[in-house]
Amino acid sequence: MSLGTTIEWTDATWNPVRGCSKISPGCKNCYAERFAERFRGVPGHPFEQGFDVRLVPEKLPEPLRWKTPRKIFVNSMSDLFHESIPDSYILQIAEVMRKANWHIFQILTKRHDRMAKLLSGPMKAFAAEPHIWWGVSVENRKHGLPRLRKLQKTHIAVRFLSIEPLLENLGEIDLHGISWVIVGGESGPGARPLQPDWVRSIQNQCSRDGVPFFFKQWGGTRKKVSGRNLDGRTFSEFPTLDLDNPLNYPGREIPLNPQPAFVPIAALTPRGAQA
Ligand code: SF4
Questions:
Q1: Mean pLDDT computed over 77-85
Q2: CA nearest ligand 1 atom 4, residue
Q3: How many other β-carbons are positioned within 10 Å of the β-carbon of residue 49?
């Protein structure tokens, strides 16, 4: 586990897999690939094998050792549902997430078909866990919106979207059953530009539909300078539970099986763990 993440919407990263391969336009300037390939061939470095997919079983138990509750981005340097990762290994990762229930786990994929298949079959029980959030990337209408639709059709307690890098105006999007939306522009060399109106459109739709909205960054080649301010505001919203009206929870609009009991971040405390 790494606590040194600069990813604004999480506290830590956990990488029991390293490496991935490109699957859609959103991958073009993949940060993880750029980082990993810098160390290809460096003896003893975690990315000695560059961006080649590699299982890292010694990392599996790390969240169980981390006693303070954290939001943990799973496989920030890979895609959990990459075709090279065996089902049995994904199940081991899921089992760790289920046991370490004082944390929140955030899983993000572009391999939506495989995720849906597993969460509707052998991993059904994990889909209902409110501390495990399952999300898909959306970069444009053609590739991203089918992922969104697949996510909506899968019985999951907490579904989210990472709309990054946003490459075009998505227009009207159906946020039915979505509990959280993150938006961001691309950063680094060759970053593709992000138009403010594209972001405003999504923010307005989230506001209208009561979906928490997190604006991560404008991106560009000078990400720190461009910042994350939208029309004078910083948007850093996360899924929350309306305690007075627990049924007023975006993720419940699509029937879930079993019905989740959503737990707000603030209420999460280590169970059976020493702080
Ligand atoms: S799926 Fe994610 S990690 Fe894999 S190549 Fe694409 S952007 Fe990179």
A1: 98
A2: 20
A3: 15
Q: Which of 17, 31, 78, 163 for a ligand 1 pocket mutation test, highest count of atoms within 8 Å of Cβ?
A: 78
Residue 272 confidence (pLDDT): 34
* Cα separations in angstroms, 132 against 14, 101, 166, 257: 14, 8, 24, 15
Euclidean distance between CA atoms 169 and 174, whole angstroms: 14
| Contact 60 CB / ligand 1 (< 6 Å) | no
Cα–Cα distance list, 180 to 233, 236, 253 (Å): 18, 11, 14
Give the CATH number of domain 12-257; options: 2.40.50, 3.40.50, 3.30.70, 3.20.20: 3.20.20
* Pocket flag, ligand 1, residue 23 (CB < 6 Å): yes
**Average of pLDDT values for 49-57?**
98
Are β-strands 132-137 and 180-184 bridged in parallel, bridged antiparallel, or unpaired?
unpaired
What phi and psi, each to the nearest 5 degrees, are found at residue 217?
-170, 155
Q: Is 30 in the pocket of ligand 1 (CB under 6 A)?
A: yes
- pLDDT given for residue 234 in this prediction: 97
159 lines ligand 1 (CB under 6 A): no
Per-residue pLDDT reduced to its tens digit, 159-203: 999 999 999 999 999 999 999 999 999 999 999 999 999 999 999
Query: Is the Cβ atom of 110 under 6 angstroms away from ligand 1?
Result: yes
Atom 5 of ligand 1 has which residue's CA nearest to it? 22
What 3-state class would DSSP assign to 230?
A: strand
Are 112 and 150 contacting, i.e. CB atoms less than 8 angstroms apart? yes
| pTM to 2 decimal places | 0.87
- pLDDT of 90 reads 98
Enumerate the domain spans of the chain: 12-257
